[in-house]
Structure formats: structure tokens, C-alpha cells
Amino acid sequence: MDKDTISIAVVGDLVLDEPDADYWLAGIAPGLLACDLAIGHLEVPHTSCSHEAAGDVPAPGAPPENLEAIARAGIGMVSTAGNHIADCGPQGILDTLGGLQRSGIAQAGCGPDLEGARTPAVANVGGVSVALLSYNCVGPGFAWAGEGRPGCAFLPLITADGSPVSPQADFRSVHPAAFEMLESDIAKARAQADLVLVSLHKGIVHTPAKLAPYERPIAHAAIDMGADAVLSHHAHIVRGIEFRAGKPIFHGLGNGCVVTSALSPGQDHPQRREWAQKRRQMFGFEPDPRYTMAPFHPEAVNAFIGILQVESGGLLVVRIVPVDVEPPGRPVLAHGARVREIADYVERITVAAGMPPIRIGNDGLVREAV
């Protein structure tokens, strides 16, 4: 190992379909740039393609040049397997992959076919090789890669009533094929890397604390099969932190940086306008009117950057850097009383989700409670 300690920052969803992405990212960039590697989840395609896929509420393609801003903010690796990455069709995915490569950002989760989508991203960080695998757990099925078909990697789940795969489906359990895919892919990644991270796009959106029945089993399986940490996103609100055999599971990293007009109820796109209104009824929340670029659940203002600190001998230490989301949706490193408030919030929702309690020190160190 070239360095005694390396640090990896991990954040959740990145949706930057507004101009001046450098400004929106500047509030968290210092925390990302302070680490040896930063990893985020790229939620939407970055493309000028105007195609809209049918079958889900389509997100607009983000400006391709915003990928360069993501790189300037310190993010060198992204997961891409998610429910909106195929919203601009296969061309949108291929454009995004090309833009990431030009921007120097490694990616896992998408590819020109399923084999490419299941291939890990690997980086050398201070003498430690880090592999990232990325999977979509929530549909829609049209986003999934296949033989000769661009798309994302996926882990199949079983719904309560056998309904078609969609982000709103009532997922109850893990399909046996998902365990087989995880075991195979993690073993291949382990052969290439010292540290294996598994990214899962999973969970129940816009709902504090609550985990779906499949979430802990699939995350536990990833750890049991050899992953060193699980990184999760999709819910647009942070979730609790769990340890499995001493290894961390972030059940929801929340919004890394989400600034978009696509969730405004006053827009002229009929499907997006309808969803902006419907989700408030479905999930029982009223967004703070000041958050015009991030109209999420009011508790989504409690955010954080996860830190994986690899010390000499391979010891993995977990920290969080609390992040406050300020109107109209810009995340900034928290300060003052908000630092402790956010740490307390993460402790509280961990227990509320039925997981063992954790303790977060004033230095951000996360431990299992004794």
C-alpha cells in the first residue's frame, strides 16, 4: 500500500439538468476533493437526444457538459444502473458512456450489452485497487441491458402479486437469480481488486426510515459474498446505516446533488406534471415551497457524504460528513448545530427502520452501538 490511509467519499443520486452545474456542486465539492476518490450515482442520462422512453415518467436528458462539472467537483467514479438512465433510449446511454469516458469518470452499471453492464469499474487509489459493481433493483424492465442491447445491470426481485417490474412495484423478496449474479460478479471483482463496493439502486422513494422487505436480505447477501461495503440510493432521502460482519451498508445515501425543474408541478410536460402532483398524494408529504429545484420530502434536507477510510492493514473505518440542503436545493457541508442534528437524524432513522442502533461521534465516526 502506497499510503498509510486512503479515503473514499460516497454520495447518492446526482441529477444536474440545470445550467451552471459547478455552482450547484460547489457546496459539497470541498468534502469530495478532500478524499482520494469520490463516487456518486448518475441518475439520468447526459445527452442531447430528445427521445422519451415509454413505461415510466421520463426524466429529461441532462446537458452533456455537466459531466465535466461532476469531474471538477472531485467525482472520479459513478454507478449508473438505475431506473432513469434509459429514459432517453439506447442512444442516451451510449452518449452518457462516451461523455463519462471523455470526462475521465469511470463507471459501472451500464454498457452496450449485459456483459458490459455487469463489468466492474476499477481504480487504483494510493496503491489500493477499488472495484465498483452497480445494479438496478427497481425497474423498469426496458432499462435492462441484454445481449446486444444497451442498458443497465439489474438484480431481479419478486413482487407481492407478480405485477410487471416498475419503480413503484411492491417488491417483497429477492429472486434466486439475483443471488447467483451477485456471487459471480463479486468473485470476479475480488480477483481484480483489494476493495469491492456494490452499488444498489433500491428502496421506497420519498419515505423516511422505512425499508422494503427485500432490502436488508439483498444487501446482506452482497456482504456475505465478499463485498466490503454496500452503497444504496434511489429513495431521494437518506436511510440508516447498518454493519454486517463489521462491514458497512449504507441503505440510502439520499441526494448527492439533485437540482432539476422536472419535478415542478407547474411545468408544461404532462407526465412529469402529473407525477409531481401524484407523488405528494402517494407518499403523504408536502414539499417546502422554497425548494423549487428539489421539491422532496422535508426530511430530505438531512443529507451526508459517506466516508470509507481504509487504514494500514486493510481496516475499514466509516464516517459521515453531514450535508445540509439549502433552498432552492443546493447541498452544502453542514456547520454549527446542523452537524449534530443530521448525525442524530441518521441514528434515529436507523433504529426506526428496525436495524441495530449506531452511534455517530462528533467527528463523524460511525460505530455499532454497544
What is the name of the CATH topology? Purple Acid Phosphatase, chain A, domain 2
What is the helix content? 10-25%
Shape: globular
* The CATH fourth-level homologous superfamily: Metallo-dependent phosphatases
Task: Give the distance, in angstroms, between the N- and C-terminal Cα atoms.
Answer: 32 Å
Structural class: alpha/beta
Count of all domains: 1
Main β sheet profile: 8 strands, mixed
Number of helices: 9
Q: In angstroms, what is the radius of gyration?
A: 19 Å
Q: Note the run of SSEs as H and E.
A: EHHEHEHEEHEEEEEHEHEEEEHEEEHEE
- β-sheet strand percentage: 25-35%
CATH class reads Alpha Beta
- Runs in which pLDDT lies below 50 for 5 or more consecutive residues are none
CATH architecture: 4-Layer Sandwich
Mean pLDDT over the residues: 93
Q: How many beta-strand runs?
A: 20
How would you characterize this protein structure?
By secondary structure, this protein is of the alpha/beta class. The protein has one domain (5-368): Metallo-dependent phosphatases (Purple Acid Phosphatase, chain A, domain 2, 4-Layer Sandwich). Helices cover 25% and strands 29% of the residues. The protein is built from nine helices and 20 strands. It has helices at 21-25, 29-33, 66-72, 89-103, 114-117, 176-190, 215-224, 270-283, 337-352, and strands at 5-16, 37-42, 75-79, 106-108, 110-111, 121-125, 128-136, 151-152, 157-159, 171-174, 195-201, 229-233, 241-244, 247-250, 255-259, 302-311, 316-326, 330-333, 358-360, 366-368. Strands 1, 2, 3, 4, 15, 16, 17 and 18 form an eight-stranded mixed beta sheet that branches. Helix 4 (89-103) links the parallel strand 3 and strand 4 (106-108). The chain is globular and about 55 Å long. The two termini are 32 Å apart.
